[in-house]
Amino acid sequence: MRVESHHPVSGRMGGWLHKLIESPSYYKPEEQAVTVATKAPVKECDRVYRAFLRLLNLEAYHMKELMEHRGLTAKEIQEIGFKSLVGVKPWKICKKLIDLGCNLKGIPGFYQAPNKKGKGYYWCFNYYPGFIFPILDKEKRIQALQIRLDNTSRNRKYRLFSSGRKQAGSSCGVPVHVAQPMLVKDKRIWVTEGALKATVLSRKIGAVVLGTVSSNTWAPVLELLKEDYLEREIVEAYDRDKYTNHHVKTACEDFRQSASETGKQLVEAIWNDQYKGIDDAVLAGCKIRYRKIN
After folding, report:
1. 124: in domain
2. Which of the 8 DSSP states describes residue 16?
3. Domain membership flag for residue 148
4. Which structural domain range is residue 145 located in?
5. β-strand 208-212 against 130-136: which pairing, if any?
6. Residues 95, 192 within the same domain
7. Which residue of 98, 137, 224, 249 has the smallest Cβ count within 10 Å?
8. Does 49 lie in the same domain as 152?
9. What are phi and psi of 173, to 5 degrees?
10. CATH number of the domain that 150 lies in?
């Protein structure tokens, strides 16, 4: 009311009227308290997620994107398990899973939605159009799923398949994707940002690549590095904005400090600054150089 506009308000209060661009949202109290479930064991998550992916198809435009922009072959795309979340009915997919004997309680991504026609709930999941792919643990079990969104207008490209704070749902946390190649050519352990990036990189260089959810969610990586008893070199391959973005730079430096304490040799991967990510640089055939950190 203190900012002038073309619509002055008459009366004792005074001030100016401003029209809202978007429709206002109103608070709606919850009719029932939400009961979040304990996250199911990874073995059960793996079983349900694999059944879930088998019920989905892969759209032609997603296949084209994965082949042309990610450098994957049709065989690799099938082996990794990429599928599309397009034109699906979440409640119908959930019913099929239940009919197959899957217990969805505590499986991140799935939750019970209030039945609008009466009392009770039905199983559902949040539907975000895009392609979905597995986040694996060191035993190659699907511990979580991630979606590459088709609509990235709000500068958000990825969303974890999670259902924290939902009835009978669970959060997937911040899992680290352990991408393992079909054939090991590089015995070093690479660390980079992003599960999809790690998947592509692992296939192209033939190395184990650990992919974090974001630049600052590297803590779980340390546990994996400590569990690896081989004297393998660690290659840090954060995106090149670590040189210009303060937050990414700080996260990268913190990771390096902690990783160096594992006693393993740590090196930085360096490539042409034309490419932000290591995956794009490798696909473009850039020569990768290495700088010893400790």
Report:
1. yes
2. B
3. yes
4. 42-160
5. unpaired
6. no
7. 98
8. yes
9. 75, -150
10. 3.90.980.10
Structure tokens at 129: 């159009």
Percent of the chain with pLDDT over 90: 78
Domain assignment present for 5: no
The verdict on residue 203 lying in a domain is yes
183 in the same domain as 148: no
CATH number at residue 257: 3.40.50
241-285 pLDDT per residue, tens: 999 999 999 999 999 999 999 889 999 999 998 999 999 999 999
Residues 201 and 129 in one domain: no
pTM of the predicted structure, to 2 decimals? 0.86
Q: How far apart are CA 198 and CA 190, in angstroms?
A: 9
Higher-pLDDT residue of 98 and 118 is: 98
Helices (H), the chain: 42-54, 60-68, 74-80, 90-99, 195-205, 219-227, 246-260, 278-283
* pLDDT at 113 exceeding the cut of 70: yes
Range among 21-30, 104-113, 153-162 rated most confident: 104-113
Give the separation between CA 114 and CA 256, rounded to whole angstroms.
46
- My answer on whether 124 and 233 are in the same domain is no
Which tens digits make up the pLDDT trace of 17-31? 777 665 554 444 445
Choose among 28, 49, 31: nearest CA to 40. Answer: 49
Q: How far apart are CA 286 and CA 20, in angstroms?
A: 50
- Backbone region of residue 92 per phi and psi (left: phi > 0; alpha: psi in -120 to 50; beta: other values): alpha
Q: How many CB atoms lie within 10 A of CB 237?
A: 27
| Separation between Cα atoms, residue 54 and residue 218, nearest integer Å | 31
* Per-residue model confidence (pLDDT) at position 28: 43
